[in-house]
Amino acid sequence: MEALKGRDLLSLADLSAEEIKELLHLAAGLKSHTVNLRCNKVLGLLFYKASTRTRVSFSVAMYQLGGQVIDLNPNVTQVSRGEPLADTARVLDRYLDILAIRTFKQEDLQAFANYAKIPIINALSDLEHPCQVLADLLTVQECFGSLAGLTLTYLGDGNNMANSLLLGGALVGMNVRIATPQQYQPDATVVEQAKKIAGDRAEVTITNDPEAAAKGAHVLYTDVWASMGQEDEANARIPVFQPYQVNDELLSIADPSAIVLHCLPAHRGEEITDEVMEGEKSRVWEQAENRMHAQKALLVSLLGAD
């Protein structure tokens, strides 16, 4: 994966189909311990939003690779006192080997990438969550053996997860259906980008009909109905999103081999029922574990192995 060394990952669209394939292959090898790589480097985590899986999976991945992790909590650094982003980026560039950032605006990630020479990783923004989708694709590949030709249906809010699933699915040749209420559709620019990437290899469908989207799907995927920063809207959104709940009824019209994914945290009884979350079709815990393996492959590829 020398082609990725030194690059940024701000969007899944920064990767080619072949690069995603190679990343997933490497992740599978690292997970099975058939590949052993070391990188004695330092990863910085600059998270402006709360995190469990992303923070812990990146940290454990880096430690297992033989590297070090520094948690750059904005509340205890000069970032919280208004230090300009450009100044922070240029200083961290001289201390760290790689930096993962969880933030609100995609533009802030791009600014860090502009001012820092080290690789910058999008650990979640309001627009995209590329690292999660790498783990999602690894999970689907483990279940079905391949990705091309499968149909993934995402139900709920057209948020950063919907955007990244559109791009990731298009890149690997999966059909992606996004079912949302009319006023909560994914980013229109991302939709057009995904359609262009998919070409005639896969279908990209945006609909308001959850049943039509779920019919025959190989993967049913959902996320919380109100993302971080939207907590004040949560109660008002419940009746609007109720028809998009992943439950036994919706699962019954999916493909017989279908699996269920959720990027977590989950609000059981809202976007997904407890029965489905804990049911035989759920691959949620494997999906969560794969965050670590996919990110380990990403770190190795962006840093280069010693």
Automatic annotation (TrEMBL):
In alphabetical order, the GO MF annotations are:
ornithine carbamoyltransferase activity
**Which intervals hold domain Aspartate/ornithine carbamoyltransferase Asp/Orn-binding?**
149-301
Q: Which reaction does it catalyse?
A: carbamoyl phosphate + L-ornithine = L-citrulline + phosphate + H(+)
Domain Aspartate/ornithine carbamoyltransferase carbamoyl-P binding as annotated: residue spans: 7-142
Q: What is its EC number?
A: 2.1.3.3
Q: In which pathway does it act?
A: Amino-acid biosynthesis; L-arginine biosynthesis; L-arginine from L-ornithine and carbamoyl phosphate: step 1/3
Q: Where does L-ornithine bind?
A: N160, D223, S227, M228
Q: From the UniProt record, list the coiled-coil ranges.
A: none
Pfam families under this entry?
OTCace (PF00185), OTCace_N (PF02729)
Secretion signal: which residues?
none
Task: Identify the enzyme class.
Answer: transferase
For this protein, the parts annotated as crossing the membrane are none
Question: In which family does this protein belong, per the annotation?
Answer: Belongs to the aspartate/ornithine carbamoyltransferase superfamily. OTCase family.
- Return the protein name: Ornithine carbamoyltransferase
Natural source organism: Funiculus sociatus GB2-A5
Q: What is the lineage of its organism?
A: Bacteria, Bacillati, Cyanobacteriota, Cyanophyceae, Coleofasciculales
